[in-house]
Structure formats: structure tokens, C-alpha cells
Amino acid sequence: MKIVAAGILLVIASIVPPAAGGGSAAPPEDRPRMEKLADGVWAWVRRDPPGLMVDGNSLVIVNDRDVVVVDAPEATTGVVAELRRITSKPVSYVVHTHWHDDHITGDHVYREHWPSVEFVGHASLREYLPTTGAANRKGMIEGAPKFVESLKKLVAEGKSPAGGEITDEERRGYESDFALVDRYMQEVPGAPLILPTLTVEDGLTLHRGDRTIEILHLGRGHTSGDLVVWLPKERILAAGDLVGSPIPLVGSNQSHVGDWGATLAKLRALHPAMIVPGHGPVMRDDAQAALMQTLFDSIRAQVGAAVAKGSDLEGVRKAVDISEFRRKFAGDSKHLGFLFDRYVTGPAVESAYRDATGAK
What we know:
By secondary structure, this protein is of the alpha/beta class.
């Protein structure tokens, strides 16, 4: 489960006051499923309604003799169960698109099933995971139950964190959040942090029979250590959180909005036929990636212009107008608008300001 900033508390503190929530089984239409994309290529896709919490998608590539997996979400036990139904071949590599818990927590599950598995990540993961990553996980474990208790109380009273009465869309999203936090508290506290056994700076290519698997660092965006996995023959791209739906996930203290647009331009230049995002359904075009690129390019340009005039962060916030993009991503949805404000409007401007000024 991801709460984008440095951890859950940085995002939720301004939503509800700290006050342990359980969760219930997701209805069938919300349950993850394995989707076949091409011969030997499958996507494990989350279908949770939009909310404050998420768990990641995964890509499964079944080759002549082995399996390569992209990302290890908290629900990796479920991924492995589906994988066992598809093939008896061993998993030899797990590639991490970045370092957040909803993409790495399931590593130990793969190691338990296949002890010789290699974990591939950007070189920065080896420094991040035992330091900032461990601290953020500790904060999430300590803060998530209190957050859920407060949010449950609000929902039970029919109140919306965005103000006013809660809508059906909001209620469904927050009930999904309760279940995801419950899953997080079951899976993550006992999960070891496993460092990559293979690290990538710019790229790594795996050859499996007539299949080529390219692991690429196209630039900074969601984090400084984003990787994508590209299958040139199938034209399938696992994008991690460089691409997400319905709302981009930005962490003000970890993302790099100043670079994100340029990184997405490189991603789109591959001309993928299908994009497996970090969150959301499989995409059959690059429309969401293009919209995100335009959004981040606009923020970068507006922030740069304000900084050039001498504005501080608060001045920059007042100068930047992304209301047009809020409408494009959220439409008339009160719930999606609230999520856009929490995950984009605030953190994206701060991220671009940090990139433009070098501020910490």
C-alpha cells in the first residue's frame, strides 16, 4: 500500500486528526485478476476503487525456462498462487520499478518459494531501503491504525474528509482503504527488507530465447530510482508509478516533477502498445502518460517562472494554476478532485520548487 509522501502520516495528517481499523473482503468486481497480454506475458492488476491507499500491479513474464516478475506488492501471495496455475517454471528475477512498500514488500514470498531468485533495482535502492525506507515503514505501521480509526468514525457519521456529506463514491473508496490498511498491517510488519542483488544505473538487458527484456532507467519522476521494463517484441511496458490512474501519485519529498515530464517523453518515445501502470488498469494507448507529461511540464514551467521572479514556496503556490488539469483528471467527481488536491496540487508544486531551487 502506498501513501505517497514520505509515508502515510504526511498525507493524512491534514485530512483527519489522528485517533485500528480492520477491513472486509473486497467484492468480486474489486478483486485483483491476472490478465493475459501476450504469449507468456501476464499482468496482475489491482481493481480497488480510487482512494487514499493503494497496492501495486505486477507483470509476469513466462519464458522458455524461467519467469521474470516486475514488482512484488503486498498481495504477492496472491500473485504467486496465480503464477503457479500458469506455469511450473521458477522465478529467476524480480525487478523493482522503485522502492515503495507496495512494490517491494512481497520479495520475501519469492525468496521463500525460489531461494535463488535475484532482485533487481536501481542502485539507489540499496541506500534508501535500510534508511529512509525503514523509517517510513515504521511510521506507517505506527500511524495507519490510528488514521483508519479516525476515518472510520468520519465515514460512519456520513461526513466527507473533503467536507459536507459523504458520497457513495467516497464511501466505496474509503471502505477499500480500510481493507488495504488491514492487509498492510497483516503483511508488512513481519516482512524483511531485502536489498537488490543486482543494481542498475542506466539499463540492463535480459535475453530469454527469442524474447528480449530491457530494464531501463529513463530518468527521475515518481522517485529518483524509477525503472521501467520494456518488451520490444511485444511492445509491452511496465511503467511503475511513472504512470498511474486515475490520479498521478506524487510525493513532494521523493518525486521529481522538474524531470518527470522529460522522463515520460522518453517512455512514450518507445511507442508501447500496452502500458502496465503501477496503479490502475492496463492501458492500450499512451493517453494517460501524455496527459501526465503535459501536467508536469506545465507545473515545471509555471514554477520556474515564479522562482525566476524571486517567489518563495508560498508565492509559487499562489502563482501556479493547474485547475484545468484537475478537471481533466477528476472531472466532476468530488472524490477524485479531493485525491488530486492531496496527491498532485500540493506535493507536485513543492516537488517542482525543490527541483528548481535545490531546496530541501
